[in-house]
Design a protein that fits this description.
The complex is a heterodimer of chains A (about 450) and B (about 425).
Chain A (H helix, E strand, L loop, with lengths): L1 H7 L7 E17 L2 E19 L2 E7 L5 H15 L13 E4 L12 H18 L3 E19 L4 E19 L2 E11 L10 H14 L3 E2 L3 E7 L1 H13 L4 H4 L3 H6 L13 E3 L22 E5 L2 E2 L6 H7 L7 E2 L8 E2 L3 E4 L6 H5 L4 E13 L3 E13 L2 E7 L2 E5 H6 L1 E4 L4 E3 L3 E4 L2 E5 L1 E4 L2 E9 L3
Parallel strand pairs in A: 4-6, 8-18, 9-16, 15-24
Antiparallel strand pairs in A: 1-2, 1-5, 2-3, 5-6, 6-7, 9-25, 10-11, 10-15, 11-12, 13-14, 16-17, 17-18, 17-19, 19-25, 20-25, 21-24, 22-23
Helix pairs in contact in A: 3-4
Chain B lengths: L1 H11 L2 E17 L2 E19 L2 E7 L7 H9 L24 H4 L3 H18 L4 E17 L4 E19 L2 E11 L6 H14 L9 E7 L1 H15 L2 H5 L20 E4 L20 E6 L2 E2 L6 H7 L7 E2 L7 E2 L3 E4 L6 H6 L3 E9 L10 E13 L2 E5 L3 E6 H4 L3 E4 L4 E4 L2 E3 L2 E10 L2
Parallel strand pairs in B: 7-14, 13-20
Antiparallel strand pairs in B: 1-2, 1-4, 2-3, 4-5, 5-6, 7-21, 8-9, 8-13, 9-10, 11-12, 14-15, 15-16, 15-17, 17-21, 18-21, 19-20
Classes of the chains: A alpha+beta (about 450), B alpha+beta (about 425).
């Protein structure tokens, strides 16, 4: 394989050439309701070629790896059609390395019958915890990818990447009203992460059931304290995507808004992203362009100090490489993506955070969110009113929306209890769901617009 | 290859189905008005379903040269598989549908590039500062199905689609106008797409504000498609109904929404990229009336959900290479209503016109609850659009709201090749704003 790839890299006609070949195998199990709905095995073999000529890119991906040289020619011809552009690549040392996953519990060695037994146990808990459970969905998948990456600068990398994703949703129903709660987990090195979660599954069901008796929240502007789960989603959606350099590098006006050195929040605000922390869902040793992973400060002491880059965006903006070029799989070229993103822990304990709030909202968990760069929106999985410094009645339908810049500045307190969400898959363009982790401690934000019935 | 694979599969089981999918697509991307990347993607793969002792074993692979290992993988999985009570159907040739256009299949890449260039040039004529991201994709696919009943069917489909996002920033005000279209035959009216975007940029020049209250809200056809259809698609799916999670599960034959609403699912709709002669299990596609004058008439099914419901497949099975078939809508066609669109706006004293909404479905989709940020919407005052609103959320419950409609536009507009829906005026939805 290495020989074939290095041979193909010698094809003339381009300024820069990359070849990726990927093999993968995995399994997927899905339950819907009381029944197992889907169980399957899949294997993949595919690859891609990226060529740059005069700064323009051509790209070809394929399953028929026997025709590698045809696709190399195709990518080069396409780059030629793009014509001269000003794309350059940041300087990087060529890397020759082989990375295998340090697995704690290897899912490929866990018999299918054992996986099914575990899921049966969880499903049984869902269905026996409350008579109001209407239906449930359990999704499990594992994929082991074996990647070869080589480029015309002399990099040759072999990397193994493992991804395990696991999510459970319980739906509870009372008359015409249906509410849901989600538990999602994931790992890049350990099947054990999904074992022994029986208590959390039971909690999840109880969350769904208690939403049935929660009143719809009154829409308006509130002081909001979010739990680490929801705050993690917030930092990913509201700020993380804005830090992806490919959103700003060709957009001068957006760049003006995201100028390094600009104050975004208080001294207590520190936001980082990086794949270098081992064992988190978005962790890896090298990104999909062969750049080593790092820890990148995006906001430090309230000030914008960094953003996330690929080799192309780093060159364009004259900023350091951060190891954030990722592709979902061989079908797609790498683009700038987050890895593990978090608000770093601050000083404030949770009790202190709510004790002087006369009327506010405590919002927890999340279904997900969306961003349009300036504006973000995300929904709380459950919430309670805060009244006179205490947690009060449960409310539902709490959806938070706002302007990123204003909201970060409105963070009044950063908690001391960082926790990570690892069940998430990030969507960007067509490359979804990409394994990522996001995290945060509790945070308190003033002046948040909460959607709700008037 | 298919015969060999089926032969091996049938040695293991009486019921076997082979699904082969090949595709080549050419996405052309523009970023910030410049041609950025040309891609070619070739996909080919095979999926196998075996029924062994009443359970399904499923395996899929894109390893071109070793399909036979699929049988082993499927057999390994079968003892744990879903229980099924159906047989694979007799596969008979359906009359050809016009979904393959050689002109699209053979369109030179340079022409795809020109479509993008032309749209961008048109928009910048009136909005020079707009930064446009455009994707034009041409796709050529072949789908082949064979099963142990002995038949084999196949079709080719071409698709050309374009999506465009025009971004304008003035200070901290960010405007994104998004447009999308697709077709299986003929050509894309990309000039019309550019005109729509230009019109919306012009309309968004002035800002307006709205108070926090329950107000009348009009969704444009595009806004309606983006905001309202997802829970309806879930509620009308045979699968959701079987699970007892559908808001309309016990409403078969009963009125569920406004009596001016009639909705068809059409698997053979002309020019739609969702059309095919048969679905992904080989069942012929058709037109199914889902809602007739507000009354639920049918859910949509695949083989498995139909057999569990004691009904018949409606030809709505959809799958990707790596997933088992599941019921999926094809082209949704609403009938038009009773009011001219201009009159919907003219008759509103205070309200919102919503065209693009963001994040509506981060919440409780199954219950029909949406709460989204108004990404592109306008304040209506005394029957006129007075400015674009920002920092505003619209909240409501689709199933309830469809029972309190004040007006439905006369014309069901083609939002994309797979949706025709009119503008909808809801009498009261929750509007929240800081403005």
């Amino acid at each position: 394989m290495r020989e074939r790839i290095e041979d193909a890299l010698k094809t003339p006609g381009s300024d820069y050439l990359e070849i990726r070949i990927e093999e993968s195998q995995g399994s997927r199990i899905r339950y819907r309701g009381k029944e197992l709905e889907d169980i399957g095995r899949f294997t993949n073999l595919g690859g891609n070629v990226r060529a740059m000529i005069g700064g323009g890119w051509g790209f070809a991906s394929f399953n028929d790896v026997n025709r590698l040289s045809h696709y190399v020619e195709l990518a080069i011809n396409q780059a030629r059609l793009i014509g001269r552009r000003d794309s350059r690549l940041a300087e990087a040392e060529p890397v020759v390395d082989m990375v295998s996953v340090q697995m704690r519990r290897n899912p490929l060695r866990v018999p299918l019958s054992d996986k099914k037994r575990l899921l049966d146990e969880y499903n049984h808990i869902i269905w026996s915890t409350s008579p109001q459970v209407q239906t449930s969905i359990i999704n499990y998948s594992d994929t082991l990818r074996s990647l070869h990456f080589a480029n015309s600068h002399g990099t040759y990398l072999r990397q193994e990447k493992l991804d395990i994703g696991f999510s459970l949703i319980a739906f509870a129903r009372k008359d015409d009203d249906v509410q849901q709660a989600i538990l999602s987990l994931g790992s890049s090195d350990d099947y054990g992460v999904i074992e022994g979660r029986h208590e959390e599954v039971e909690d999840m069901v109880e969350r769904a059931v208690s939403l049935l008796s929660a009143k719809p929240v009154k829409g308006g502007c509130y002081t909001v304290v979010t739990d680490p789960h929801l705050a993690g989603v917030f930092v990913h959606e509201a700020f993380g995507h804005l830090s992806e350099a490919d959103h700003v590098y060709q957009n001068d006006r957006l760049l003006e808004l995201m100028i390094l050195g600009r104050k975004f929040g208080g001294e207590h605000l520190n936001i980082v992203d990086g794949a270098a922390i081992p064992g988190l869902r978005g962790s890896f040793r090298y990104d999909d362009e062969g750049t080593p992973s790092t820890k990148t400060y995006l906001i430090q002491n309230g000030v914008l100090v960094g953003r996330l880059h690929s080799r192309e965006t780093a060159a364009k903006m004259g900023e350091p490489l951060t190891g954030n070029a990722r592709s979902l799989n061989y079908r797609f070229p790498p683009i700038v993506r987050m890895t593990n993103t978090c608000i770093e822990a601050g000083q404030v304990p949770f009790q202190d955070m709510i004790s002087d709030i006369k009327e506010g909202i405590y919002a927890c968990h999340s279904y997900g969110g969306q961003t349009s760069m300036e504006m973000f929106t995300f929904s709380a999985g459950e919430a309670r009113m805060i009244r006179d410094g205490q947690l009060a009645e449960p409310v539902r339908g709490v959806n938070l929306s706002g302007n990123v810049f204003e909201t970060l500045a409105n963070i009044e307190a950063v908690g001391n209890d960082l926790a990570w969400n690892q069940g998430g898959g990030c969507g960007k363009g067509e490359q979804s769901p990409l394994p990522v982790a996001d995290g945060s401690p509790h945070i308190r934000i003033r002046d948040v617009v909460i959607g709700g019935q008037g | 290859m298919i015969e060999r694979l089926l032969k091996r599969a049938r040695a293991a089981s009486r019921e076997a189905e082979v699904f082969v999918f090949t595709m080549e697509e050419t996405p052309v991307s523009f970023e910030a008005n410049e041609l950025k990347q040309l891609q070619t993607r070739q996909v080919q793969g095979t999926a196998l379903r075996l029924i062994v002792d009443g359970r399904i074993g499923f395996a899929a692979s894109t390893r071109v040269s070793h399909p036979e290992s699929l049988v082993d993988a499927a057999l390994e999985v079968a003892p744990f598989g879903t229980t099924v009570d159906f047989e694979f159907p007799e596969l008979s040739k359906e009359p050809d549908l016009p979904i393959y256009d050689p002109a699209i299949a053979e369109l030179p890449v340079e022409d795809l590039i020109e479509i993008g260039r032309d749209m961008i040039a048109n928009i910048r004529e009136s909005a020079a500062e707009a930064l446009c991201d455009v994707r034009v994709i041409r796709r050529n696919a072949t789908l082949t199905l064979a099963n142990s009943r002995g038949g084999q069917v196949s079709y080719r489909k071409t698709t050309i689609s374009a999506s465009l996002n025009a971004n304008l920033i003035r200070g901290t005000d960010v405007l994104d106008v998004f447009e999308y279209d697709s077709t299986s035959i003929g050509s894309l009216d990309h000039r019309a797409m550019a005109r729509e975007v230009t019109r919306k940029i012009r309309l968004a020049k002035h800002t307006g504000s709205v108070r926090t209250a329950n107000l009348p809200v009009i969704f444009t056809p595009k806004g309606a498609a983006e905001t309202l259809l997802l829970p309806m698609k879930l509620a009308l799916s045979g699968k959701t109904v079987l699970e007892g999670a559908s808001a309309w599960g016990d409403k078969m034959g009963q009125p569920a929404v406004d009596s001016r609403i009639t909705l068809w699912d059409d698997g053979k709709a002309e020019g739609s990229i969702a059309s095919a002669p048969f679905d992904d299990e080989g069942i012929p596609t058709r037109r199914t009336c889902l809602i007739d004058k507000g009354v639920i008439r049918s859910f949509y099914y695949d083989l498995r959900t139909a057999s569990l419901a004691g009904s018949a497949s409606t030809g709505n099975a959809s799958r990707s290479l790596e997933t088992m078939p599941t019921p999926s809508p094809t082209t949704w066609i609403f009938e038009g209503g009773d009011v001219d669109e201009e009159d919907l706006i003219a008759g509103t004293r205070e309200g919102l016109l919503v065209d693009q909404i963001m994040g509506a479905w981060a919440g409780n989709v199954m219950a029909g609850e949406f709460s989204g940020n108004v990404h592109l919407g306008y304040k209506i005052e005394n029957g006129e659009l007075v400015g674009r609103v920002k920092d505003t959320m619209v909240t409501g419950n689709v199933f309830q709201a469809l029972r309190s409609l004040d007006g439905i536009g006369k014309v069901a507009h083609r939002v994309s090749s797979e949706i025709r829906i009119p503008a909808l005026l809801f009498s009261s939805l929750g509007v929240a704003s800081r403005g």
